[in-house]
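Thread: adenosine-5'-triphosphate complex, take 2
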Amino acid sequence: MRGKLTYINGPLVSANLSQACLGEQVRIGLQGLMGEVIGRKGDSALIQVYENTESLTPNDEVEALGHPLSVELGPGLLGKIFDGVQRPLKDIAHQAGDYIPRGLSLKALDDDRVWPFQPNEVLLHSHVTGGVCLGTVVETARITHKILVPPDVNGQLIGLAKAGDYNLTQTIAVVKTATEEKILYLSHSWPVRTPRPFINRDDATEPLITGQRIFDTFFPLLKGGKAAIPGPFGAGKTMIQQQIARWSNADIVIYVGCGERGNELVDVLESFPKLIDPYTQRSLMERTILVANTSNMPVVAREASIYVGVTMAEYYRDQGLDVVMVADSTSRWAEALREVAGRLGQMPVEEGYPAYLASRLAAFYERSGRVNTLGGDQGSVSLIGAVSPPGGDFSEPVTGHTKEIVQTFWALSKELADARHYPSVSWTESFSEYVPITAQWWAKNIDADWQNLRAIALSLLTQAQELMRIVNLVGPEALSPEQRWILQGADLIKEGLLQQSALDEVDSHASPQKQFLLLKIMVLIYQRGASLLALGVPVQELNQWPLLIKAKRCKNTYSSEQINDLQQFIQQIETDFHHYFDEYGAK
Ligand SMILES: Nc1ncnc2c1ncn2[C@@H]1O[C@H](COP(=O)(O)OP(=O)(O)OP(=O)(O)O)[C@@H](O)[C@H]1O
Ligand SMILES: [Mg+2]
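Output below.
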């Protein structure tokens, strides 16, 4: 269906398209700029354009394409870098140079690339429904891609390709549905704003191990969980998300850069392809998809990118995989919502944001979860969104609503970042509602004492905070030896455990086993020291205990493979303790 442009206001235009539906894709003008219908008024459709609308004029032709914004899903997504509407950035650069020309239309996946298809032959002639696995394709060394019947197809499988090499335009299967003989390919498309269906949600039980101690040990996230990383400017949000993308034990990582600072994305685009996957020793890109909003697309296009990312995440989830999607940052996405609402003349509610901000945020995070898939597998999507509140004020609407939606909240603190305590995650403002569930996992897989030691460490941190208030008021002399030892205990936790340098080769990642032993070391030193104090060892002498400095350095002295050395260190603490004990106990 075609119509004419009637009105242009920045990225918002309208056209007389009386039949176009909400959400329908359109192409505008001679260049064929991409857009989406976001409102209707009488016969005219309001359209959000994903590209710069300069040079459009009234009466330019608009074509409604008859389908909503959709992504292409199939083998070949992994390792790709897409823009916010799933155009492959590398192929664009190849064809058109560094600057994306407007209206450029390129397929997300390479149609001509062939994939070795291994059919599931027993299915032939049987009745198939959405999610049934027609066969597999080895996509990368780590990921075997299941070719599933698309969720909305249902009928008798009357044709299935033999084992062999196929490209994306060749027929893989034919399904006789109630109305037609539907041809299936290795890929299919799916509308990004419609969550992909599944049988039911399942309780998430397994932690997403990130290798970052402040998360895994103190504020854990589950596979299928939702987390937010609010943080003021420069506090380390991007660094944390990159660490998660690099080290987390998910099968697939989708990184959506929603238009943070321009050079930051360049950084991501340059650094990611060089990273090595710690689990396979191959390129990290073999399990990664990057979605990067480019700065020459208007703000409103960022709004789409987050849905493009999460739809690809659900697609791999449906194959029974654990997927993590990180979005940097959801504030930019919310700003896009605000801009569109403003142009539509909708009533602003909080700080200019429309009334539906909270429900849009909730609907986005709702697409996370661990599910039983249509095909009978279990898969998960974990969502981790950075939030960049203006001025670092966590009471602003995006941070406020996000906090109510997520179960894990990793709050970054400006004071910690200024003190170069990285990751600058505040232990007083952060929370995780998943601790009881993760405690079971730690007890089963690592050590039954995890929850107890974690609680002692957190309590030391809280007590130390109180004591520091006293010190600031009346000076350190006011503290008793026990209280001074608590401060030392908290320092051990902070320096030996919480601070973790992303830039240090050994410290960048810690296995659960290493995390637990470090936690044990710090708490043990505190506890043994407290008993020695009771015996009469002066706190000054304890503060000189040579093991203190060594303990704080264990994190970058011993790698995750050197578990024995850490266990020996624990022995060393006990030996030292008995030495003191004999000396003072005898007195
Ligand atoms: N875990 C870490 N280890 C070492 N250095 C870190 C760590 N986290 C952050 N930094 C330091 O802080 C700097 C800023 O971090 P980053 O760019 O991630 O912040 P941001 O919150 O994303 O900033 P912006 O608000 O500008 O997007 C980094 O360049 C790095 O020097
Ligand atoms: Mg950043």
